[in-house]
Amino acid sequence: MEEKLYKRKFIRLPKVLELTTLGKSTIYEMIQNGNFPRALKLGAPQKNTNAIDSRANFWIESEVISWLDSKIAERKKVLAQKPASSIDSEGIERGLV
Asked: How far is it, in rounded angstroms, from Cα 23 to Cα 59?
């Protein structure tokens, strides 16, 4: 399998929310449960107001993208095991009600 290379970049919560389309509380709950990449804090407490705020959370973009890729792979695996009749033309699983 070809390894995907991403620029190593720190991203803030708004970008994480945009990439995942998940809510803030969902992201933090998933982190607590070990199901989402942990945020990191850059720097130490600063007196300099121009320094990076050490209270701010940052994520490594490639870790978030890898998490997304893993969710897509899980979905493909599950869909491959389902009978074709339960999946519509858009790839959405239709259950019986």
From this structure: 15
